[in-house]
Design brief:
Order of helices and strands: EEEHEEEHHHEHEHEEHEHEEHHEH
Shape: elongated
Largest sheet: 6 strands, mixed
Number of strands: 14
Strand order of the largest sheet: 6-7-8-3-9-10
Length: about 325
């Protein structure tokens, strides 16, 4: 598929700090790419470089096949963005803010204002001044401004910040619809893997300015660790029996009590065999449960396993 977003050995240095370090991204048209990282990992610097707001120290960035050059603004006709906090004119209403943006973008179709307010459920706040908006609606306004000109690429940083659970679902479904039915390419920068994995087609994890790994979300489930939890009346005896049978048995604390934990694939895939074996040995289990690693734990484990935790002196977003 044709690439909408591409970086080649992209780097940005601030003195000794490597905010972005040899980053190679490839996002196809119509894809939703989840750009995951902790605060200070290099997400915002990457996005600002893609927008031409930051000049890279090394490497190149391309949007829709065009090389991004710092200071170049014509690419913004095809790009919508929300970077850091949503910007608005505080003394103007929601509707006035959107109308001003239309004029700045040279769009004469004023129906776009009503269309985007309806899409982001901002109609009830149309005449409210931006400075009086709740955090959630200020975020909605920021997203509306990113989408009002119907861009081909959307770059969003933490787009669900401040939204309630229902609002999060609405925004994510909106972005999914734009990608699937309008072919819009979306890069979502976030630190919430569980949230973004609902709609992302692929995910890149960045830390210390470096791309740690890229994951196709269809294969994400298979990369989550699974463990079989076992408990019974005579736990030490059960542990010895299982160990003698060749299983690696650890202990894990759950709700202030310790249970046996088996990570062996054969135990996780066929726990009923463990149950039958223990019953046969005279120690029937009182607990037999396969526990899956949650997505946030996977996210943090992936960073740790790659050995990329580094001190950069100070955080850069």
């Amino acid at each position: 598929m044709e690439e909408a977003i591409k970086t080649i050995h992209l780097s940005k240095f601030y003195g000794e700090t490597r905010a972005v370090d040899d980053l190679n991204l490839s996002v196809s048209r119509g894809e939703i790419f989840g750009f995951l990282g902790l605060n200070g990992s290099g997400k915002t610097t990457t996005i600002r470089t893609l927008l031409g707001l930051v000049k890279p120290s090394q490497g190149e960035a391309f949007l829709l096949g065009k090389k991004v050059v710092a200071g170049m603004t014509d690419i913004w006709r095809d790009v919508g963005y929300l970077v850091e906090t949503p910007y608005s004119y505080p003394e103007l209403t929601v509707e006035e803010n959107l109308s001003v943006l239309l004029k700045l973008r040279g769009i004469k179709d004023h129906s776009r204002v009503k269309w985007i307010m309806q899409m982001l459920q901002l109609e009830k706040s149309a005449v409210k001044k931006a400075k009086h908006l709740s955090l959630g609606n200020a975020q909605r306004l920021g997203i509306a401004k990113a989408l009002i000109h119907k861009p081909k690429i959307v770059l969003l940083e933490e787009p669900t910040n401040g939204l309630d659970p229902a609002g999060i679902v609405e925004v994510l479904e909106l972005l999914k619809d734009l990608a699937e039915n309008s072919g819009v390419t979306i890069l979502i920068s976030s630190h919430k893997l569980a949230e973004i994995s609902r709609i992302a087609t692929s995910i890149g994890i960045i830390h210390g300015g470096r791309l740690v790994t890229t994951i196709d979300t269809k294969g994400l489930e298979s990369r989550l660790r699974k463990v079989l939890l076992v408990d019974g009346r005579h736990k030490s005896a059960m542990q010895s029996i299982l160990a003698n049978a060749g299983y690696e048995v650890k202990q894990k604390r759950i709700n202030e009590r310790s249970v046996l934990a088996l990570e062996d694939e054969r135990a996780v895939l066929v726990p009923e065999e463990i149950a039958a074996f223990l019953v046969h040995e005279g120690h029937p289990p009182t607990l037999l449960k396969v526990e899956r690693e949650d997505l946030e734990a996977f996210f943090l484990r992936t960073i740790h396993e790659k050995g990329v935790y580094r001190d950069h002196g100070h955080e850069l977003h």
